[in-house]
Design brief:
Number of strands: 2
Radius of gyration: 24 Å
Structural class: mainly alpha
Number of helices: 13
Order of helices and strands: HHHHHHHHHEEHHHH
Helix content: 55-70%
Shape: globular
Largest sheet: 2 strands, antiparallel
Strand order of the largest sheet: 1-2
Distance between the termini: 52 Å
Length: 291
């Protein structure tokens, strides 16, 4: 289980290292009566695999983070104060030329990779975006408020439940669709556009349905199934909060697990129903004896 979660952590940088530490303590606690020192050691080793991603960024780019774009991602939705002569005047993920004079071109790290074509091009892999992202983070992080963060999360959840049909890897297929289901921004075969900003889609039903089933069936779920659900919810939260504008696209990476859970849901619903029925019959029989 810990190995599967660790491998999954390499899917998306928004999977934070803190989750690894959380799952270590979570699994040690729920299986505390069955774990040996050997199993605990293996679990810790597997769950610390994501550290290699952080270590790589630290060794190569002096950034102990899963994504060197973290500052720009957060600044997309948390930058509200525009300070003259600072990065706040430039939209995050703008062209590198628009940031001229707003970072130190003489930084040793820039000189270190000056002869690397892939790190000096006109794309987001440019080494300079590391310093730009750091500058965004330093400017935005102290000003993040709980109230605004909740508003960002609300936007992310709304986007999370939209269709990822405008994702560029899918456009070659979806653009061939004709008729009322023709591809529009944020729509595909599984969603219908009501207006430019509103749609009805299957995702709006699948995910809330599975969360409700999960919450109701918690007492009947095995510890491993609970862990899978909790991990999905944690990832979903990070998708909606860290980069809410793309949360629907990032959701695609865990969708197969949701669909698998939908197939299992009748089994859990019936189990819940049998438990309710058993309790009702038992209470009815008890009350009848008392009479």
């Amino acid at each position: 289980m810990s190995l599967a979660i660790s491998i999954g952590s390499f899917i998306r940088p928004s999977w934070h290292l803190g989750l690894a530490l959380f799952w270590i303590f979570y699994m040690i606690w729920i299986w505390r009566n069955k774990l040996s020192k050997r199993i605990i050691a293996l679990g810790v080793v597997f769950l610390l695999l994501p550290v290699s991603l952080y270590a790589k960024n630290y060794i190569l780019f002096d950034s102990f983070t899963g994504s060197t774009w973290l500052g720009m991602n957060i600044a997309r939705f948390h930058t509200r104060n525009f300070v003259p002569g600072s990065l706040s005047l430039v939209r995050p993920f703008s062209k590198i030329s628009e940031y001229k004079g707003l970072y130190d071109e003489e930084n040793p790290l820039i000189h270190k990779y000056s002869n690397e074509p892939c790190l000096n091009g006109e794309d987001f892999q440019n080494i300079r975006y590391i310093f730009i992202s750091r500058a965004y983070y330093k400017q935005v992080a102290p000003k993040i408020s709980i109230r605004h963060s909740l508003a960002v999360l609300d936007f992310g959840v709304e986007k999370y439940l939209k269709s990822p049909g405008n994702y560029f890897l899918l456009k070659s297929f979806t653009e061939k669709i004709s008729g009322p289901w023709k591809i529009y921004p944020f729509t595909d075969l599984l969603s219908y556009s009501l207006s430019p900003d509103e749609e009805v889609n299957v995702y709006q039903f699948i995910y809330p349905f599975m969360i409700i089933v999960f919450l109701i069936s918690i007492p009947t779920l095995s510890k491993k199934i609970k862990l899978i659900f909790l991990h999905l919810l944690a990832l979903s939260f990070l998708y909606c909060f860290v980069d809410p504008n793309e949360s629907h696209r990032m959701r695609m990476e865990v969708e197969p697990i949701f669909y698998f859970c939908v197939l299992l849901s009748p089994f859990y619903v019936m189990r819940i129903w049998r438990q309710i029925e058993t309790k009702f019959v038992s209470r009815f029989a008890t009350s009848k004896k008392i009479r």
